[in-house]
Fold each of these.
Amino acid sequence: MTTHPFRVAIVGAGPAGIYAADLLTKAERDFELSI
């Protein structure tokens, strides 16, 4: 079985979006992040 990375989209690149992206990049999950 093939596993695909979890996909996350953050709408808006303001302070809250950047903060959320920073927290997600520190998570130990395989995911793709788009801002």
Amino acid sequence: MIRLALESDEKWAVVEFTPWAATDLGSLTGEFYEVIASAMPEKGKRGKTARAMLMSAAPVATSVMKTAAEGFFDQRFGTGTWQKIADTATSSTLDELGNYKPTPNPFRQQFAALSKAIERTGAKVLVIVDDLDRLHTDELLAVMKAVRLLGRFPGVHYLLSYDKRTMLDLIGASDLAGSDPDRARAYLEKIVQYPFELPPLQSAHSRREVTGQITAIAHRYGCDLTGTDTRSGRNWDLIDDLLALLPFIDNTTLRAIYRWCAQVDVLMALLGPGHLDLLDAALITYLRLHHEQIYDRLPTWRSKLVGDAPRAIVLSDSPRDTAEDWLTRLRNEAPGMSEPELTDVYKILVYLFPKLPHQLYSRTRPLSTTPQVHHDEFFDRYFMFTLPVGDISDVTAAKEVSSLLSDGSLPEGGVLRTFIAAGGGDQRLALRKLRRELGHAVTDAPPGCVLAALEHLWPCLLNEHGDLSLPGPGQDIAAMLIGQAVDASSDTDDARAAVNQARQCVGLRGITQILVEFRRGRDDYPAPIAAAVTDVRDEVLGVCMADLTSPQPPQEGQVLSFIYFLTTDMYAELRRRIDSAGLTQLDVAARMVAKDSNLREELQGFYHEPFEEIYPREYWDLTQFPDPPSVDDLPEREDYSIDARLAQAKFAMHSIMLGITSNQPD
């Protein structure tokens, strides 16, 4: 502020003195002379003369200060003092002086001559000396001596910037003050003639700075500052959440704010755009700078931190840690931290890692698609400052997914294809990346492209049994592609054609496993999907009837293959067909026995729920299940003949009706 005000005034020259540039007391004094010389007017004889004299005087002044440091210089120069000056001055110094030759007691004469030369220029000089409180004690005293020695030049003023408490501590630790705070204060008052204390940074100002800095970082790396929680519909604001979680912002300095924001910027730059969540990066960086002991422990607590918030109610006898357990853990790691600080840090951890037990009034993390730290695949990035070995760049994944949707296949030799082919953990990581990036890019793809992508990806989406893992990234990926094929179709006929094409690609069982995703948590399919699956629906009902009327299950599947696909209306249609075919409850129940099941183990192989969808319990008729076998007479597990299944169905139905067991498979 002062610099800006004076730089616009032609009468003033503002220069900075950097005490860090000097290695000892002598070079410190010489640096002072050079700084003042640089402020002299460049035009005109007087300015050039003053500049030359100051530059020439620097070596002599350095000698004086060296002598002063040894204790020989006080307020006047004696004979012994001059001898030392003469011994340390070099011939090059005398050459530089030219016609300006030292005489006995040279410093006073030079000082007077220099003062007169500076005064004749009419220059007004402000020398800014910043960060004095960051020097060591001996360095600080050296600067103070130099200021006191050279501070009487006419028109030359010094602006010393420092933290007063730190300065008094440094001076008090020296032999000069002898640990006496009053002497330290008195010494400082002798040097500083006009003290001016800056008012503390107000909350509004610090928040303004944080907002400006974080906003600039967000724009630099393409991060959203606002959004809507897709789970709750709540609007969120990154800056608001950040300010609410970091109480230090209301009681800090500009230097601390700039340092923190600069570190956030560096972390974002090291990973690159699209690889970190800005809010998480800012909070993790805050912990690293202000609570290092806690930050250092986070990687060792990884298994307790990563993951989503529990969806079920945790019973009291569960081994899961409580909030108080975590506070105790934090106390042990940072014993010097106050209770309010502990609470604030834990609130940050809960926000970053929703898996942790929440306290009352804890701020919750909005659901977002950004690479947040609580996800296992992103956690290491925030602590390694780079993509860990074995990770996949999200930017690279996005480019390859774009190629998938435009070309119908992943690039040959690409990262995703390589990781998928490797199998195991690499394949799972690649599928998670695929799922994530498809969510961003698939909404613009036409039906033909997404169906080609589904055909290309299908083999790698299946588990070792040839099925989709439910739930899992494979099912999510396939459902996203089918959903887009339906949404992007021009009408219902085109949507049905797209689903039928997918059915030909992945098979009947495969398409039903995909479609199940669309009715998760609901009784029926969304209207566009329901209209598009009519042909698949009819085919499934036909296969179910073939299973119910054949001694061997059809190759396309059996009733149990489609129980998650069938809706209430489909079960009702199946019941009408069953009645028209004259089938009995025993015929149907026999098809509810799973292969390789063992009904001796609490009927785990009998699926009563789909049977109950066809025949509500009040209509069960045990007379249709005559002569049930005893436990000892049940068929072996490997026997899946129709006779074995009929016997198992009789045993299961009588057991359920008589209340022998209530532990049924769902």
Amino acid sequence: MSGAVTPRVPPSPRCAADCPDAGLRAVPDACDPARRHFLATTLAATVAAFLAACGDGNIGGVTGAESGGGGVTSSGPLVVVLADFPALAADGGIARVDGGGRRPIAVARLTAGTFRAFSMICPHAGYRPIAITGGGFECPNHGARFDAQGRWTGGQRASDLAEYGVTLDALAGTLTVG
């Protein structure tokens, strides 16, 4: 059947102004409302899936105000339940903590009862998040490296990581940041 004919229908009034062909058009066409709806829905779902894959999903173990962006103290102190972060059970452990709409922070356990909390935003260029790597931190954007105490140790020159005050409640097993 070499002479197959494509059916032609008049353009719908909804997309007649958008179609370059004011006369009859072949089906399917870019002006077809069903195709536009499908493409818009598919694009929205793809973007949502991509954005969900970018996060690590780790918001467990965090309580406190959940609103607002900015720094850790922008919406009050952040309370971290230490048992929810296995990396903080041993000396030298570091865990990323995301608290609702807050910027990500890293909590480091230096020794038993000694914790420090740092911003995971690179002080050089504002790149986020800094990666936790083998007992320290590294900016994947430009290679600056920091030790577990937030001090710059190598790579592109940057200031030390911003630090937040912490208070340990050993009986409750919580750490209050900010």
Amino acid sequence: MIVLEPDENEILEEKSVMIQNGARVEDGKLHVTNKRIIYEKIGERRLRRAEASKIFLEIPMYDILNVSSAVPKMSLLTKKKLAVEFRKDGDMQTVEFEIRKPEGIVDIIKNWATTSKRDHEDRLKQEDQERFRRELEMAKAKSNKSNVNVISFGRNGNQPSSSNKDTDIVRDNKANLPRPAETVEVCPECGSYIPEGSKFCPECGYKVKKS
């Protein structure tokens, strides 16, 4: 028994024989939905064990290239054939299903295949756009991180940021502040600070007397 997706509807379910590359797979069911063509091998009970049903072939509608029907010329009792050309792993393959009335289902499959291809292409485009958006966001994040480093350390390593400039100004201001009273000499003539080690006052020229 096949499991349908929430938005998947079954159009056809019929006992059928699948023919591919000259090999016949009998005792199966052909399922046609708005999304897939499925051939299910019907399970069977044997004397000592039971064989479960399994999906023998599954073709997404967007991989279908062509579909047609054929009527055998030799016998009126022989079932008609539904031929499906599809793409798998980059190669074109053909499979036939023996069913009672393939004519009515051919146009339905063609219509669903066209719709499915369009939806599939739109979905791929959306996935590509989403992937591009994520990559762009990652690139922006990396770029912003690099810009932070540039701002912090300056371009070419010699242009500090405004925050660093402020820090440098504070450091310069601290360097220009007068030292503690015990280490600072004051000119007795003009009251200016005399740099340590100076012999004369830089303002009035007073000669410093060394003790």
